[in-house]
Amino acid sequence: MACFTVRSLYPWSCAVAAALALAVHAPVLDATSSASSSPQPAAAQAARPEIRVRAVDDFAVNGRGDNPAWNGVEWTPLNVRNNAKDPFPTKFKVLYSKKGLYVLMDAVDKKLTATFKKDFENLWTEDVFEVFLWTDERDTVYFEYEISPLNYELPIIIPNFEGTFLGWLPWHYDGDRKIQKAVSVTGGKQESGAAIEGWRAEFMIPYDLLRPLRNAVPAKGTKWRANFYRMDHDLGKDQVVQWDWSRVGKNFHDFRNFGTLIFE
Length: 264
Fold this sequence. Notes:
CATH topology: Immunoglobulin-like
Distance between the termini: 43 Å
Shape: globular
Largest sheet: 14 strands, mixed
Number of strands: 16
Radius of gyration: 17 Å
Number of domains: 1
CATH class: Mainly Beta
CATH architecture: Sandwich
Strand content: 25-35%
Order of helices and strands: EHHEEEEEEEEEEEEHEEE
C-alpha cells in the first residue's frame, strides 16, 4: 500500500503499523470494529445523548482526576454492549479550555490485561479506553484516541468514506501538539497481569493536534459529535466486553450515531 503525506492538508504521517491495524477493522474483531458482535438494536431508535461541557483554565493531569477543576462535574456512565453482564461499571467526565479537551475515564476492573510497552501499538486488542471526536459533520473525518492501563497511547485521524477507513498517525507529534496523559491504578500494581480493583485515565487533547479538522477549536455554543468506549479483555479474545456512551451498531466507527458535546 502506498503511503504519502500532503503537507498543506494534514500534519499526519501514514504509518504502516496503523494502516495495517485500521485496514482490518471491517472484517476482523478488534476494539474498534467488533465485526462479529451483534448490532445494538437501540442505536437507531434511541435519541443521541448530549453532554454540556464546562470551560476551565488549563491544569496539569496526574491520572487521579483530583484537580478541583473536576469538582461539580457529574460522572456519565458507559453502557455495556451485546447484552453482556456488567460487573465493571465505567464512567467519564469532560471539560474544555482554550487549549484542549480534558477527559477523565474511570473503570472498575479485576485484572490488568495489557502487555504493550510502547505507543502506537494495536492497543484495542487489550484493555483500553477510547475517545472519538467528530468535530464537523460536513466531513466524514474524525479523531480517535486510545489509552491503555499502562499509559501507552494511539492517536489517529480517520477518514471514513461509507465504511472504508484507515488510520493516520500524527506528524511532528511534540510540543503543543502532544497529548498530556496520565493513568492511575487502584488495588494493585500498574503492571501486566496484575490483580487490581480499577484504573483511571486522565488526558488533555490539544486542539492544535486536531488541525486541519474544521470546527476544531470550540467556543461557547460549539457542538461536536463524539463517543466514548471501553474494551476489557480479561476473559480472553472470545469474550471481550465492550462499552459505549452513545449506542452504536456493529462497530465503534458508526460515527453517525455518535452523541453530542455542547460547549458552554
